Amino acid sequence: IMLEYEKHGELKTKSIDLLDLGPSTDVSALVEEIQKAEPLLTASRTEQVKLLIQRLQEKLGQNSNHTFYLFKVLKAHILPLTNVALNKSGSCFITGSYDRTCKLWDTASGEELNTLEGHRNVVYAIAFNNPYGDKIATGSFDKTCKLWSVETGKCYHTFRGHTAEIVCLSFNPQSTLVATGSMDTTAKLWDIQNGEEVYTLRGHSAEIISLSFNTSGDRIITGSFDHTVVVWDADTGRKVNILIGHCAEISSASFNWDCSLILTGSMDKTCMLWDATNGKCVATLTGHDDEILDSCFDYTGKLIATASADDGVSLCRPGRSAVARSWLTATCASQVQAILLPQPPELCHVLGNHV
């Protein structure tokens, strides 16, 4: 649940973790527990919060065996696409392209809502400021990042300062900052309100190709071709930890929801799990036969998915042991693994071929 409140005339947000909510959870008892821990939720809001949690509970109880099918094919751009991103509700999405534009689309109808024009080179990195979804950031090979209005398509700011291509970006959860990562080996934090640079994060010796905030917005991680991931304090711009262990370029880096773990994927064919507090490696995921191209946690932080150039997708359950250990893999003919912890390991899913 996201709470929005005003403090000293400034609008702020706060999130409440509902990761343990299940179909059999006692909602009244849960709301009571939340209110004890969160003074922002007064008695006058009790029924509203109960109704919201009951709706979430109903969704959790629904049948998850969805059938997926091709919904629409959109002739989006005149040149190849680089990225796609959805807003929080999924009602609209954006596409970036080599044609130097970003387009906004209505998901249900497939109608083009707006074309964001202004970059002078490839639009490579794109994002909504979820969960709000009223702004879009675009990062380009022209070395700039632009901030746009979803409603009007107006460009609020153009962030200039990088000396090479911008290849990754992210909003903080509070939607007060946007972070950009560049081939110039630096990341920058920008103030959304005034368009000014807040900090430059220096310390990598090669290109930064992945970055992500944690859910509280006080930490940001950057993954680099120098084989390392750096944890930064988003409030001061200072380096907190350096995650050293991969022996090839980093391809992805992200926090789990409760900010306790960091997941990194690498061209060395492995993923690693790290303690987000002390920066120590707690597990190494092996089993893929080629480079890891992407990796992520599910919303609970209990499952991990990894995608590899070996045509494989793995689903894993991270162990909470402080000791790094091997991961059991079950492999089908298409080189797709399913990996589980803790012991005894069991097969979770085997996913079919990609061609």
Automatic annotation (TrEMBL):
GO terms for cellular component: transferase complex. The keyword Zinc does not apply. It comes from the Eukaryota. Keywords: Repeat, WD repeat. InterPro entries: WD40/YVTN_repeat-like_dom_sf, WD40_PAC1, WD40_repeat_CS, WD40_repeat_dom_sf, WD40_rpt. WD repeats lie at residues 74-115, 116-158, 159-200, 201-242, 243-284. The keyword Repeat applies. Gene3D superfamilies: YVTN repeat-like/Quinoprotein amine dehydrogenase. SMART domains: WD40 (SM00320). This is Dynein assembly factor with WD repeats 1. It comes from Pan troglodytes (Chimpanzee).
